[in-house]
Structures are given as structure tokens and as C-alpha cells.
Records
---
Amino acid sequence: MSNAKNHIKGRGAQKKVHNRFFEHSHELRDDFLNYCASEGEEAQSSKTSLIDTFPKTIVNKVNSPDVGMNYSLNPYQGCEHGCIYCYARNSHEYWGYGAGLDFEQKILVKRNAVELLEKKLSSARWEASPIVLSGNTDCYQPIEKKLKITRKLLQTFLKYRHRVGIITKNALVQRDLDILRELAQDNLVHVNLSVTSLSEETRRILEPRTASIKKRLETIEKLSEANIPVSVMMAPIIPSINSHEIMPLVKEVSERGALGVGYTIVRLNGAIGGIFRDWIKKTMPDRADKVLHQIESLHGGSLNDSRFGTRMKGEGEFASQVAQQFKIAKAKYLKGRERTVLNCDLHEEFKNGQMKLF
């Protein structure tokens, strides 16, 4: 059970953390906290702020052999979803912010994302290759409802008949069913929906500002009914938190129309280890030590693992049990379903934004 007294409602990370690239750090002193308490003031703001950025490029080459994508595109940096385990937290330090609360409260908006994508897709040197939205942070996080950058990006992919993948845990993707249907007609899109648990209580503490489990299952169903290819990622699997849900989760999403299910094992690299440790001791004090020790058993005695080939799946007895459960679950609930290979052949004809006549 969580310690409500110390818990910051609506946030994953429970503290600000020092940026390792900065020489100086900030500390909340007890005398300042006592002053704020006596005056009825907040010691630190819980509001989200948007920061406009104008990068020079938007499509990123992905060199990791573990993540299954060649290129990614992230219209936002930082993510208000607040998933406590998120590997992208570390990347916020490169922008000059912390991986803790800063990651959830300071959202960088790439205002020229659409123009940069159009420039890339219309380039004579660009050869069609899969581009995945949300390789780092969710393209359908809450601010997208207002800004609609992701929707405009999808319209650009459609205009140039270019293949696109989507990774999200937000039901807001349903808003763009009209564009997704058109992309799917030419076999140009695949949606990967993240479903970490079937328990709403678990969802609320792990991923505080994400769509409910009910809405995510509904989203899988609606995408499937619209003939839009959809798969599910159970990512990450965390021992003693959601590790017991593999069989029922695969069964549930298969009944909703998912074509496949993948998974990753939790890994807590960089600043995330300290953030997660602080979070679980405040949120689940009764099992904190057990969970932390089990995570360490997956990564050779450490919360951290950066080795290609093992970092996503872990190693040891527990990792083997998880892999075996997924093998059984797929054979039982997903037999005969295949993930469609998307089309990269149309783009050359539409490189100027319309079909070539001659």
C-alpha cells in the first residue's frame, strides 16, 4: 500500500533529481519545507509547462539492435504520462533537465516537426524506410489533444504514402481513425499499444496519467474492427507487480483483436534506478525490497543493464520463466496470427506529394 502522506498525486516520480551533467544541484532544505508548510504554500510547483523548440532534424536513426526500428520520430520530449519505469527519463538530462519530476512537468514541443518531416520525405536522397512515432516519448501524451502535431504528422505520411509505425499507451489514437484507415488501405501503418497490466490499481500507480485499462482494451478493439493492424507491448514486466499477468493479459488482448504481443523486462539504467527506488519505497513499502532484489536477479545483481542482447529480456531463472510463459501464451491465444509486413513501395511515386503521372 502507498504512503499517502509522502505521495505526490498524479505523478510517477516522487522527487526532482540532480542532472548528472550539471556541476551544481538544488536541494530542498528542511527549514524551507517547514516554512512552506506553515505558510500553506507548495514547496515546488506540480504544474506542467510547455517549452517550444525548433530542432534542425526530426527523423532519428536508431542504431540499437534491440528495439526493432530503423528510424524514430518524437514530436515531444519529456512525457506527462509519468510512467515510473520509463527509459526515456535519462534523455531529459541532455536537454538540461532532470529525469525525475522535470521529465513529467517540462515538456519540450517540437513546433516545426511537420515541416521537417515533409522536407525529409520529399528529399530526393531519402529512400522509404519504416519511421516509428514515439521511439522515445509518447506521441499521444495529453498535450497532443490540443496541439495535434501527431495528427498532422500522420497526414503528412499519408500525403507521401510513406510507412509509419505508432507506439502509444493513450486512447487518443482513436481520434485519428480516419487517417489511420486510409493509411491501412495501402498497408502503410501498424499501431503498437502498450498494455502493462489488466489491473487499474496497478496502472494508476505505475502510469498515473495514461489512459485507463478499459480505454486501452477498447482502443485495440476499435483499431482491429477498422482493419488497422494493432499489436500489444507488455512493457515492462516488473517482478511481483505485473509478472503474474502474462497469460490473462495475452488472452484478453487476443480476444480484442491484437495480432501479436511482445514484452520487455524492466531495466533501471542511469538516474531511473534511484527514481524507481524512491518511488517504490513510498508507494509499495511492504514489498519494495523484494521487488528491487528480484529486478537485480534479472541483471546480474544490478538494477542497470546496458548490454545489447540481454538488456531487454534479462537473464537467469526468472527471465527464463517469463520467456516460457510468453511462448505458451502465444501458442494458445495467438496461433495463426501474423504481423503484416508494411508497404515501402508507394513512396517513390508520391515523393512530390502527389502521384507521378509520367
---
Amino acid sequence: MGVEIKVDGLTKSFGKQVIWGDVSLTIPAGEICVMLGPSGTGKSVFLKTLIGLLKPDKGSIVIEGTDIATCSERQLYEIRKLFGVLFQDGAMFGSMNLYDNVAFPLREHTRKSESEVRDVVMEKMELVGLVGAEDKLPGEISGGMRKRAGLARALVLDPEIVLFDEPDSGLDPVRTSFLNQLIVDLNAQIDATFLIVTHDINTARTVPDNIGLLFHRHLAMFGPREMLLSSEEPVVRQFLNAQRIGPIGMSEEKDADELEAEKDQELPALPPIPLQLEPSNGVARRSQRPPGEWCREHGVTPPPGSFEENMSMATGA
């Protein structure tokens, strides 16, 4: 069972440069959340702050009753045991084979015997589909396999929170699709809290239970997937639907002249909200909601064609 992460009034800056300020959100226990934002908006900084690698200027991050923004190093060490992290490039030790890479946290942080270590390592490698590749070096395998090996290593201590820093970075669309399915299947199996930082819009539209968007040094919105995918808020609408019209420009924000030139242009229609990706076995995850439930509960009419054939049933139409 995952644990809740409650963030309140979080602010982080480097020198005079404010990265983001007054960020408040609650990442629900056991759910999959995605954090989006244009390049340079501090998504990876947010992950590093959540795990205590960076200290915020203000605000709190409460996990299991402990505020990791102000706790002692000893308390932080204990809280970090709840985390597993998949880094952008997998962060494999190049001189170690995959088995030893995955075994590394167990050998460093537990007193398990080598036979116990082997049982855990092989279990996690089987979860990510790498059984048979344990003797290969990171340089001998594809980027997708390195990501899966990094994920196996992130899981060996049975974390209750798993952070994914751009897991699709460097992967082609097909391998990104396989990785997305793996993430959903893992969440169904281990019921941990997942937070994914990504630029991939298809991932954001189909995988998570909740979506957040960082923009212009603040959290523009955070909430259930259907809330953001049906939102008319300009920056949310533009980013989640990969549109050119809106406040985001090549240098993050558009200037006043660009916005003035766009004001009479008709916005493209919101695309249909896709069905959320389900586990491979077809059994819904604990946190997965029926298609259209949020829209129905809040009186929101989703874009035409949303949820395919399930939409009429889900909305009661």
C-alpha cells in the first residue's frame, strides 16, 4: 500500500531565480500521478525536493507524519526508505552487470544473505521482463532495457513511493507504450504511490489517475485526469492538447504582441478524452475510476467521442 504525500506552500529558488513558488497539492496514496510542464519549469527539481535531495526555501512535505523539509538527517534517512527512483537514463553502473546493478541497494541497505538477495533480484527482474538478461552489461542493451533494469533496481526494497524522472526520455513511441503498460501493471501489483515526470502527452492522457502542470513558476493545476483533459484553462488546454494557440511560447511565455495577434483566432476543439490504460489482466486498479465518472459527478460535458463506446453508459446518457 502506498503512502500519501502532502505538499503545502512549497517554494524553491536558486539564488535570485525562483523555480516555482507556493506549490500545494496532495498526491494520494497508491495512485498514479503525472507532473507536466514546459522545459525548464523545475519538474526534476520538484522530484529532488520531494525526496529531500534539495531543501525548499519555504513550505512543507509531509510523509507518514514527518515534514521532510525540516526533519533531521536521521528522520530523512528513514523516510527515504519509502522511496524508489527511476532516473532518466536508468543510472546504471557501467562496470556491473544488470544482476549486480539491481542487487546493489539490497547489499548496501539490508543484511540479506546472497541467496535471499538472489530471490528478490530475480523476482523484480521477472516483473520488468528481464529474466535471462541478468549477465549483460548496461552498454550491451537497448535504452528500453536499461530503463526496465533501472525500474527493477528502484523496486528491490519494496518502496511505497516510486518516482519516475522522464522514463520515456530517449525511447521511441513503441517502447514508450510498452513502458507505460509496465507502469500500470506494476501499480496494480504493488499498489505503491507513483509520480511520473514526463513530456509525453500520450502518457499524460492515458496513464495517470491525476495530472499536475507546472508553468511560469507555479502549479497551474493539479487534479483528476478527466478534470485537466476537459479543462478550458488556457495553459492547461494548450499543453495537454499540444496546441500552438495559448500562453506558452518557444521561450516559455508568449509576449503581449503574440497573445494579441492570437486573440481572434478560433481555438481548436478539445480532442476526445481517451480511455485510461488498464492493467494487462483487465482487472481495474484500486484507484482507477470508471470512464466519465469525474465528468458526470461535476456536470462537465466531455468532448465528443470521449471514452469511445463506454461514454454513453458512464455519463448516464
---
Amino acid sequence: MTDAGPLDADETTFLAAVRSGDAARFASLTERHRRELQVHCYRMLANYDDAQDMTQETFLRAWNKRESFKGHAALRTWLYRIATNACLDLLDKRNDRTPVPSELPDPASELLYLQPYPDRMLPEDPQESVVARETIELAFIVSVQHLPPRQRAVLILRDVLGWPASKAADALALTVASVTSALQRARVTMREQLPDRRLDWRSPATHELSDDERAVVKAYIDAHERNDLDGLTSLLRDDLRFAMLPEVGPVLMTADDAVDGWVSGGLFRRGHDDWRGTITMVNRMPAAVLYLRTPDDPVHRLFALAVLHVVDGRIAELIGFDATDTPWLELPPTL
């Protein structure tokens, strides 16, 4: 695997660290790639905890295989290759990382291992940031999980990272023809999974919340704080896609059905009627952090995180998470 052009200062210094066995210098040069590698692993695995583990595994493998780095490829390319194969090895071993058919009347599958990704851990490199939103949004992450692992790796390497077919083939020990075929099949699946989304992930995309998005998430929080069922219903598109993980997978439903389901589950009844909320972002998406105060409690405690996809001023997708078990998001426990 080769990258065009002479070695830059990083590769030259790294090569010297490899040859001398300088572990501290080796760690310093690889550590600067941690955030982007962790996002790469998250795209492969849809789980923050697993992404952390596989990033650490990448650094361990890199140290153990340091003699294989000859400077023919960029350090970043070499690390991505190791990270991709670490994720593939995990997926080969773990059948709980394959979407399972939902018993609900919906063609989607359950992703009970899906976890939100904190924006503060996204890469600071502006070249990564311009594509980060549409390739870190939950809809993309969920859709990618429906690809077989090696198709998933090909799609991410080729269409997200922009690698040429020859480099992706070398990284995955495949032929260029196999990579081209896998990419074609993966793109077909992604068009089926994301029929209404822009699929040109290599062109610039925004990563800041629009005024429209901020207004909708604020209205969503306000509706909870006022116990306003009509207001909540009016925010939802009629073809809402909803999931509350880890209980069930994504399902399509009408806005009225969604609200009826929430009410039957206790929403706005005594004990579930004293809400407060704040606006945040995860996966470059607008999100409402909801805090609930029960009758015998003097404070509002962290309860749920609702991640919203807003289209034309209404909520098209809502994925809820139990926020009490997401320490990596660093949300205040009380409000």
C-alpha cells in the first residue's frame, strides 16, 4: 500500500521512532489521530464503547506491528487500515453486532447496541468536520449497519474517506474488482435505507444547527414542560420514524400513534409530568436532554435524550436513549 509523494515530517519522525523503539515518541505521533480513528470505528460499529475499545486495540496493534511500517504509506493511512481490520475482526466474532429482525411491523431491524456519539469527541480537523454531520448522523450510522461488514468497510473507506479503489483493496486484502463490486452493492442498500437523504458524502455539509432545528427542539422541550400533548403532536411529521433504545428498533408510525403510545406508557401522568430540558447536540444532530422530577424528589434528574432529525420545521425521526447510562456524554445528572 503506497501513498503518492515523499514522506512528510510526521512519517519521517514516526519511522525513526519505529526503528529506535521509542515508545513515547511512537505514542505521541499516533495519539493525534485518536479522534478521527474513534469516529471511524464508531461508523463501523455504531457503539461508542466499542469504538473506544477498538481505537485502543488499533494503537496496541500498531505498536506490535510497528516494524511493518516502512514509510510507503502515510501514517494516517496505515492506522486506518489497522483500525478497519480491528473492527472487522470484532464483527466476525460478535453476532450481537448484526441487526436482528424486528417483530414489529416495519422493514427496519433492531440495533439494540446503538449509542449516541458526543460532539466534543469529534475531530477538530476542519477537513473532517465538513463531512462529519451527514456521516455521523444516526440515520447514516443505522443504515451502514445493514451492510455486511466488508461492504460496510468498503463504503466508508471509498465514499466517506475518499480512498481510491486500489488503496481500499490493499487495506482489506481484496482485489480492486471485489472492492468495486462491493461498493456498488453497498450504495444500492444505502439508497434503499436513506431514500430521502443526500448521498454525496464527500462534498461539504453543514455541522451547525440551523435556526429551524433549534426552534423545533426548543418547542419539543417546551411541550414537555407544559404537558402539552397537542403541541407535541404538532411537531411530529405524520410519517414519523421513532425508536426508544434499547427497548425496540426503529418503527414508522403516525404522529397520533406515537403520542398515544407515549401517553399509554405514562407520559404526563402523575410522576411523569414535571419535566425540564436543555438543548444539546450529539452526532451533529439537535437533541433534547430531558430531566424528570418525581413527586418525592426535590430536584429534576437526568432521564432521557431525544435525538431529532428535523425536516421542514417538523420532526421526521426521533431516537430516544436512556440518558442515565451514558456517562461519556457528560450530561449534568440534575437540573
---
Amino acid sequence: MRIGSAPDSWGVWFPDDPQQVPWQRFLDEVAHAGYEWIELGPYGYLPTDPARLHDEVGRRGLKVSAGTVFTSLHRGPAVWDATWEHVSQVAELTRATGARHLVVIPSFWRDDKTAEIIEPAELTAEQWSHLTTGMERLGREVRDHYGLEIVVHPHADTHIDTEPNVERFLDGTDPDLVSLCLDTGHYAYCGGDSVRLIRTYGERLGYLHLKQVDPDILADVVKNGVPFGPAVARGVMCEPPGGVPALEPVLAEAQKLGVDLFAIVEQDMYPCPPDQPLPIAVRTRRFLRSCGA
């Protein structure tokens, strides 16, 4: 299991935002915290010139595990061209870093900054069909054109969120084309059990995001229907080991699979004070070592 972190753990959600730390500081601090692997984060946050990115990452002793894309494939064939243009841009940079994975996040049904509802929270049967066939096509095209594996990330305030929806998505997609990025925090946020998911769908697990939820804040978020963005601002995603799920059994269950896995720490903290992420990252890395990771 290869442990890393991501710009998300430094409060980075967007390519450019005045509330985020500069990318140079993120790279310096993630290396200082003891991580070897990073994700690219939102495209355009880190340098997009492959040579410069390679130099900046390499001279800090870091390596890239994955890039990230957002998709809205449930909207059908009409969005394919725009989707592929975006995916190709990120996939090309990801491949240039030597990474093998592309984390695919479904589009939000409400805006993660304004909390405005964009579309219905539930998909129709036709939209589910568009989503599953579209992801299979994406997996095939990304593999054939870039040699990368897509890992689909269930996420709060998207259509792949709860246990039933995650299972429906996995049951409806080809294992040879679509793998899962299990984010333990998002899955707990949406009521799912990460250990049970790994036991049931272990052969689909291609990637891990390690994250915890504060159960008290989550209870209030659920009770009052708080959108994900404001919930994060309240601190719903918390520093381990203070939340749920317990990461020790999740890591133990994943290690039983006997496969090579990335486990990337992602503590959603947008927005956060610039001096907050580094001490948390150092403590989190120490905690994960105590778990044998």
C-alpha cells in the first residue's frame, strides 16, 4: 500500500482561488510531512507544463499517483465531446508524470460553492443507463489512448453517493473497464460501510482515499439538510483518528486483497487558514504509520 496526500488536504478545491495556498507551498509542505505520493488535484492548480511539473515534483522527492476529472455522463451522448476534451487534457498530463490512474468524480447535483441546486438528486432509469455506459466508454477510451485506469469516486452531493447507488453503479458496469476509488469519508458521510463494501466488492477496488467524518457534525448536517460545501466549512471532514470510519479495519481489509493499492489522504478543508494543513498532515502521517501503512 502506497500512502500519499493531495491538494485537497491543503484546502485546494479549485485551479485558482485566493483562499488557497500557492502550489509551491503545497509541494514543499506535503514533502515535509513525510509523504512520497501526491495527486494533481484540480487541473491548473499545479503546473500543466509536463517538464516543469516533473522538475517541481521530482526535486522535492515526490511522485504522482493520479489525476482527477469531473464528468456528467448521466446527461447522455450530448456531453461526450466536451467530456473527452477535458479528460484528454488531464489524462495527457497524468500520463506524462508516470501515474497510472485517473480519478473520475461524477458532477454535483448542487453547486459546491453556492449550494445552488443544479438538477434533481435522483437519476431516472435512462440517466442511470447513460451514466453506466458512458463510464464504460470512458474507461475504454482512457485505457486505449493513454494507458490509464479510471477509478470512479463516489462523492457526497453527486448521484453516486449512498450504498444502494454505489452498488447499483458497480453492478451496472464492466469490471474490466471501471474500477472504484473508495473515499472512506464520503462513503461514511452518505451512510455507507467501507469495510463491508471492500468485503463485497473487493475485486472492484482500484484506489483508496483516506478520510474521516466527525459524527456529531454529520448528524447536524443530515438533520438540517446542509449541502456538502458548507458542511466542509463546518469541519465535517475531520483529522484522524477523531472520526469515522475507523481507518485501521479499513486498511486491514484492503490489505487482505493482496493487490497494489494507493491510499491517498484527502481531508476536505476548503476553505482553511494557510497554517492549518501542515501540522494535521504530519500527525496524520504518523497515525497511519501506527496503523502499519
